[in-house]
Amino acid sequence: MASLTVENYLKTILQLTLDGPAAGPIATGQIAAALNVAPGTVTSMLKTLADSGLATYTPYEGVRLTAAGETLAMRVIRRHRLIELFLVQTLGLSWDEVHDEAENMEHAVSDWLVDRIDAKLGFPSVDPHGDPIPTSDGAIASPVDGPLTEHPLGLPFRVTRVVDQSPEFLRRLSEAGLEIGARGSLAGATTDGGFAIRVDLEQHRLSAEEASKVMVQ
Questions:
Q1: Are residues 179 and 208 in the same domain?
Q2: Phi, psi (rounded to 5 degrees) for 55
Q3: 121 and 179 in a common domain
Q4: Is 95 exposed, middle or buried (0-12, 13-18, 19+ CB in 10 A)?
Q5: CATH number of the domain encompassing residue 39
Q6: Which pTM does this prediction carry?
Q7: Residue 201 pLDDT grade (very low, low, confident, very high; cuts 50, 70, 90)
Q8: How many domains does the chain have?
Q9: What are phi and psi of 161, to 5 degrees?
């Protein structure tokens, strides 16, 4: 049984790999920033992962997960995303309340229970934030969407995913009507470099940074 810390590192490395623009090693600094820990702490853990056969680590180059490491990381991501959806659909929590709860629960539930949750929810394909849910055999779909900042002006869009799950950001999107599945259009740029968004006949403003974290089709 992998420790909580090991699971968190594996999950973070895999998420950075999946979200990255191209295949390649994940740098120590990326992991340190994602986990909010010192680079030296990351280096020590990467050596532990390498010694355990869960990753290959090259100093000054980065880390890649081995097949065993990727399998374990995918299981953790599956647990996390299904727990989030369970909390939303079954307990009625909002999408800005579930991330931290799932972080705590993902290390305690068994894969057997997660499979039961999956079946209970009807084998969903995405979590409350639009991220794809890995199947029980470790397969995961690649999102087909792009940031709102690159969407053509005037053309309709549908919100498919968000890449920032902080409660403050998600509440900000809810206030603007930009939850998963919401439809709208990009009205134009604002004088301060942000974006004017039209949703349900109402206009809202997002900063360029906020708009870059909203994925649409």
A1: yes
A2: -155, 165
A3: no
A4: buried
A5: 1.10.10.10
A6: 0.90
A7: confident
A8: 3
A9: -165, 150
